[in-house]
Amino acid sequence: MESFTLNNGYQMPMAGIGVFTFTPPEAQAAIESALRDGIRLIDTANAYQNEKATGRAMKASGVAREEIFLVTKLWPSVYERESAVDDTLRRLDTDYIDLLFLHQPTSNWQAGYRTIEKAVREGKVRSIGISNFDVKPGLVEEAVAFAELKPQMVQVEAHPYYPQTELKKILAETGMGLMAWYPLGHGDKSLIAEPLFTELGKKYGKTNAQIILRWHVQAGNVVIPGSRNPVHIHENFDIFDFTLTAEEMARIAALDKQQRYYNGTPESVEGFLGWAPDFDAQE
Ligand code: NAD
Fold first, then answer.
1. Domains of the chain
2. Alpha-carbon span 48 to 273, nearest angstrom
3. Ramachandran category for residue 96: left, alpha or beta (phi over 0 → left; psi -120 to 50 → alpha)
């Protein structure tokens, strides 16, 4: 298993599982299946409302907590809440979070950033992430300048149709990593069925999805594909026994269409401030 070294020295796995849109029972089953399969990176969020199920799955798996790299995200409605991180820890039934993101760059993100920094100083969080800060040019740089404790990761939409080439230049300058959400284009059939992936899949004895995920990893992106299907969960992690050539990497890079599946704007992001569920009210 390959790993990514964060700019604070911690290491994280290059591939894991994401549980966006999963009900608590679905999240619990998928995470247990993933952990049994050797996957050690989990990506959840306050907003997914399955953090309690994530905590149960970690316990039920029998895998030691320190072997798991646990990622979650604060939702804007709790950025200014004193207990935001403690509440998250309680739901996850753990005493630290490996990487905690600000989920959305709403107008109160600075307050949320200070909340996470305080938790890092208290030993409750190890690394800091900013998610969806690509919604406005210059915002990633603004967050880096604002930070007393520098962020380690961004989490943004990225896949062969939208490889985030410009953002990656900024990340290289600031020493931050990229976690790709929608790494498989949210399952878009036309992306997954690209003839190039079929061709390379035949060459390496891999599926099209595995070729896409391998491209991500070789491009330096951490991937968190979502799947409820144990066969796909296994497959999405079985990408570390082959290497695409430089020419094949370049051919995949040429598929860039600047096409996103989710088009957030600063205005639509601001709208998230109006969504404030009780995150404790989950199974
Ligand atoms: P994805 O690109 O991972 O695609 C998932 C889809 O692909 C599902 O329909 C699944 O059935 C299908 N799939 C999975 N493995 C497959 C395989 N091997 N072969 C064929 N099809 C396969 O999109 P996603 O699941 O929506 O996103 C992944 C994760 O990214 C989420 O679970 C979440 O953790 C994260 N995310 C974060 C944000 C954010 O705002 N930070 C937003 C969206 C998603």
1. 12-271 (3.20.20.100)
2. 16
3. beta
Q: Are strands 17-18 and 41-43 parallel, antiparallel or unpaired?
A: parallel
pLDDT of residue 1: 75
CA distance 259 to 71: 27
Q: Which residues line ligand 1 (CB under 6 A)?
A: 18-20, 43, 131-132, 155, 181-187, 192, 209, 224-227, 232, 235-236
Backbone angles phi, psi at 116, to 5 degrees: -70, -40
Backbone angles phi, psi at 16, to 5 degrees: -155, -155
Task: Report the predicted TM-score, pTM, of the whole model to 2 decimal places.
Answer: 0.98
3-state helix, strand, coil in the chain (%, to 5): 45, 15, 40
Q: CA distances (Å), 166 to each of 173, 186, 206, 217, in order? A: 11, 22, 30, 18
Q: Is 48 a catalytic residue?
A: yes
Cα–Cα distance measured from residue 210 to residue 238, given in angstroms and rounded to the nearest whole number:
8
pLDDT digits (tens, 9 = 90+) for 198-253: 999 999 999 999 999 999 999 999 999 999 999 999 999 999 999 999 999 999 99
Burial of 101 (0-12, 13-18, 19+ CB in 10 A): buried
Ligand 1 atom with the smallest distance to the CA of 73 is 41
